[in-house]
Design a protein that fits this description.
Helix content: 40-55%
Number of domains: 4
Radius of gyration: 37 Å
Shape: elongated
Largest sheet: 9 strands, antiparallel
CATH superfamily of the largest domain: ibrinogen binding protein from staphylococcus aureus domain
CATH architecture of the largest domain: Roll
CATH class of the largest domain: Mainly Beta
Number of helices: 19
Strand content: 15-25%
Structural class: alpha+beta
Distance between the termini: 64 Å
Number of strands: 29
CATH topology of the largest domain: ibrinogen binding protein from staphylococcus aureus fold
Strand order of the largest sheet: 4-3-2-1-5-6-7-8-9
Amino acid sequence: MLLVKREFTSFDVAAVVRELREAVLDSRVNNVYQLGEKTLLLKLHKPDKPAFRLVLEAGKRLHLTSYVLEKPVVPPAFCMALRKYLRNSWLVDVEQYEFERVVVFSFKAKAGGLRLVLEVFGEGNVILVDEKGVILHALSYKRMRDRDVLRGEVFRFAPSGGKNPLGVGKTEFKDALGKFGDVEVVRAITRLLGIGGLYAEEVLFRAGIDKTKPCNVLGDSEAGLIFDVLREMLSQVLDGKLEPSVVLDEDGGLVDVVPVKLRRYEGFRFESYGSFNEALDEFYVRVAAVEKAAAGVDVDVLRREAERLKRIIVGQEEMLVAAEGKAERDRRVGDVIYARSGELQSLIDEFLGAKRGGKEWNEIVAQALVGKRSGVSPWLFFESFDAKNMVLWVCVDGLRFDLDLRSNVFGNAARFYERSKRARQKLEGAKAALEETRRKLVDVEAKIREAEMLETVKPAEALEEIARHKVRHREWFEKFRWFVSSDGFLVVAGKDAVSNEVLIKKYAEAEDVVFHADVVGAPFVVVKTEGKEPSEQTLREAGEFAVAFSRGWREGFGTVDVYWVKPEQLSKGGPSGERVPRGGFVVRGERRWMRNVPLRVGIGVAVDEEEGRIRIGGGPVDAVKARSDVYVVVVPGDMTGKELFKRVLRSLVVKLPKECREIVAEASVEVVREFIPYGKGRVLVE
């Protein structure tokens, strides 16, 4: 199998742009998604037509796709910025810049004219430019020798890779070719026009000229023929006389995807498609599936790993059962000591009294054994004695345990209770370790199923199947309360004292912002900034989140003050070195205040038309509003439990289109429970 196509050529760009102009011009941008580090998906809509999904991958490709691809839970900041500017704008033009591997999308938005520049050469980039040519946002900011891509700077295209073949005349072409001297003609064409080696070779194939021939021995007629063939190929692509094909080797392996059939692939198999966009879509989805299957997903290795994890789980479960039994036994011993405290203290006193009376330990033990055989209390509990460690072993109610003669009976009971307590604390760690191992097993088993599927499913179907059925990775923030702000910042809140502690100690970073309501009994709320400056809107939403889940909601307050600080202002050291209780922190330094923040939450429904699904979410009203098709507002009130949850669902149902109402109406009331503080409130009538 030959090397699979890794990058677009200028001819590819020209062909796909021509088709895109016919398909998507004058469409409206419904939404923007970021599927990976460099891949965007624009959802476009034209009246009375199905939605178009346009894939843009920096440095690699662009085409329409018919596949439903997996989207991240939290849109990256760049994606959110594009949504802010492009959502509901109109796509008015698509053009290739100077026959380079650069595509410029022009939009008409409320803010004015916008251009989205996609670079599919090198590492690639996606750059949003305003009507004055100033860079608003970029996927990647960088300083380079020949230009800078920085926010606020005037955008400049990268220096040309050669002359634009559309603007070169025959005489100019022949003269320029002759100046390359003894350079091979294929290399000269590549350098002169920047069209890439593949199409430079194809021009020479069609012209019947040896690609290794030096330029200084080319005849004038040969140079003219090369120019004519080049023009024919350009016309074939630009006039839409395409032969879109996926090129396969003799084993059916992927080789290339081309807009026109190339002579260099004679002897290969061609799969023809109705459009170049369709061919690109099938090619890249199959490449992704093949790469995923070949990425070391060895089913046997995965199965061995699954068996190893299963053995670990069995051992952890056995250890957990034993540890739980030990903790429970120590607690029972403590209870028995308390229940028999009088008799056991008498036994301790008998031993110590006899010793003080001058008897040797062996004499006292002999006396104890006589008493035990006679069934006389308290000697009947005696089992043995360790004189070296001053430990008396007894058996009471079927439990054998030791009593330390250096402590009274209640001190011994406390010792067992403390052992039980420590054991139970360690159990929490053991349980967490067991859950983590189980989670790993679930992940490995999912990979096994995926790998087995890739062995049996046709490559063209594999990526779609993976996208639809892949087990979603649980993000770290999902064990807390969380939402994504209107401007794309992740905001996370503690649920209780333990999660408050973990959130601040483990996940709050120096550049983050921490909120807390000015009432006793409130969660810490962290705005994850990733080094960016959060907007006032995000800060307001975080403040609203902080007060909503405070005790102020339970008490029925209308507003609560809230402050925010940086993580380094939080300390576990109280006055005079006192320790602060779990979940609490001492705030040092200046606090920034928000006064009279209203207590309210929004609960909304987002409809995914592509997948025919709905998603119910909750959080600050503005954040919910930004990501929902319909929403309701809940404020503190006296309605509780299922009565309130049903009221919320009914209020959402009446706002939805008829085709979506049944799905929400049949949803469990539990889906809204987590969004309503303390499970009580009232739906605000709008």
